[in-house]
Specification:
The complex is a heterodimer of chains A (307) and B (133). By secondary structure, chain A is mainly beta. Chain A contains three helices and 15 strands. With 133 residues, chain B is an alpha+beta fold. The chains are: A mainly beta (307), B alpha+beta (133).
């Protein structure tokens, strides 16, 4: 029925889950046999037809402005009597793809992260700050629909989360440094510069109240010819110290936007975390960001099922 | 016939819910809040729609066992997800009588459910789904 789905049976799913929750030192991140390597996957994205389209330019740089979508494969059908059937779609973690990278925590923090992951019901725990409707932080905010507004000295990124309220970031590209009187915040302070055709953003001043990833993850566009995207869950990318420093790289090729990030947390990590690249497709002419406000109603009801 | 086909699809979806319930990869938080193996129905007047993240809420006023009004809240999917799939806020018709088929809350909270099917007096329905393989 859904040939793009690799997990054809509950048994296969259980096997995959078992492979992920083993007790290996790096939390059992033993990849099931994916059909491509990380390097091959990035080449596949780079070779997609939409990545081969002309890249518009503005002010000597690629034009990043636009609505960027990494679509969740939800759809609906309407029948003659007006019945509407919503189908949330088939995005699942796909064993065809390599597992995303995870930060390697120092042992004392690794134990804390594992305890949080073990407490999840499905992919949810009330410990997850997204259930407080707090901004997602960096790099976790970089998923779902965004709109970029690029001007000569300032790039604005507007975020439409499907978990929290709408947020934005101001990325000055006029050469200014980070402010000296910086208060820590959910999305930190960002300054950017162009490295050739790539916008490089330096992020500091992040607070420790967000997660780096985890939860339900995000949808990546299909790279292997499937109809729908696949779900990427950075399950063990959770805690950070607030002393972390993030470098992001945004690059546009045709109508494909690639997001790369490196998170350096000298307090909690043994080495910088190089995030598996994420991708958006340019939205259509009618695509626009939707208002997203957030009410923290779910948190109190995340609970084991009553027997 | 279309209705029966849809009903069979629904049965299949319900079966899948059962399988997914045990999955550590249950995609959405819904399965962490609601029991996909059980359902109940409530008939009342649709009073209000909260088109909010992370999930929409639909408020329905029904008559309780003692005859007094009881306000039920029914969670749905995220608003952006619904909108981009073509399910807009106005399909939840305020002021109309609906029969809601819902999954009960895991934590036993009364007057709360995940609204799977909203059936209007003219027979048309709004069907939401959680996850399937």
């Amino acid at each position: 029925m859904r040939p793009h789905l690799p997990l054809r049976s509950f048994g296969a799913l259980a096997a995959l889950v078992a492979s992920l929750i083993g007790s290996a030192p790096a939390f059992g991140q033993t990849a099931p046999a994916s059909s491509v390597t990380d390097e091959q996957l990035q080449k596949l994205y780079a070779n997609l037809p939409i990545a081969k389209l002309a890249t518009p330019r503005a002010g000597g740089h690629p034009e990043l402005s636009g609505v960027w979508i990494n679509p969740f494969p939800a759809s609906s059908e309407k029948s003659e009597n007006g019945t509407i059937s919503f189908d949330i779609g088939g995005a699942r973690p796909s064993a065809k793809y390599p597992l995303p990278t995870m930060p390697v925590y120092k042992p004392e923090y690794a134990a804390k992260v594992k305890a949080i992951v073990d407490s999840q019901i499905g992919a949810s725990t009330p410990l997850d700050p997204q259930y407080d409707c707090k901004p997602m932080g960096v790099p976790r905010a970089s998923m779902n629909a965004i709109q970029i507004v690029q001007t000569p000295k300032l790039v604005v990124i507007l975020y439409e989360s499907n978990f929290i309220g709408q947020t934005f970031r101001l990325i000055y590209t006029d050469g200014r440094p980070h402010p000296k009187d910086l208060d820590s915040s959910f999305l930190g302070d960002s300054v950017g510069h162009w490295d050739g055709d790539t916008l490089v953003v330096d992020v500091t001043g992040l607070n420790d109240e967000t997660w780096l990833g985890g939860g339900q993850g995000h949808t990546e566009p299909p790279a292997l010819g499937e109809k729908f995207g696949h779900q990427v869950v950075e399950r063990f990318a959770i805690l950070h110290s607030g002393q972390d420093h993030v470098i992001e790289r945004y690059s546009r090729h045709g109508n494909l936007l690639t997001y790369e990030a490196t998170v350096d947390d000298p307090v909690m990590f043994t080495a910088p975390w190089i995030v598996t690249p994420r991708h958006w497709f340019l939205g259509g002419a009618d695509d626009r960001l939707l208002e997203s406000t957030c009410e923290s109603r779910d948190k109190g009801h995340i609970a084991p099922r009553a027997q | 016939m279309a209705y029966m086909a849809a009903f069979r699809w629904w049965l299949a979806a319900v079966t899948c819910f059962g399988l997914l319930a045990a999955s550590a990869f249950a995609h959405h938080s819904v399965n962490a809040e609601f029991d996909p193996t059980k359902e109940f129905t409530v008939t009342g007047v649709l009073k209000h729609v909260d088109w909010t993240n992370p999930h929409i809420y639909v408020w329905v006023e029904a008559k309780g066992e003692d005859g007094k009004p009881v306000t039920w809240s029914f969670e749905g999917n995220p608003p952006g997800l619904l909108h981009r799939a073509g399910v807009t806020k106005d399909v939840f018709k305020v002021g109309e009588t609906v029969t809601v088929t819902a999954m009960p809350a895991n934590d036993g909270t009364k007057s709360l459910g995940f609204g799977k099917v909203y059936r209007y007096a003219d027979g048309h329905e709004i069907r939401l789904s959680v996850a399937r393989e």
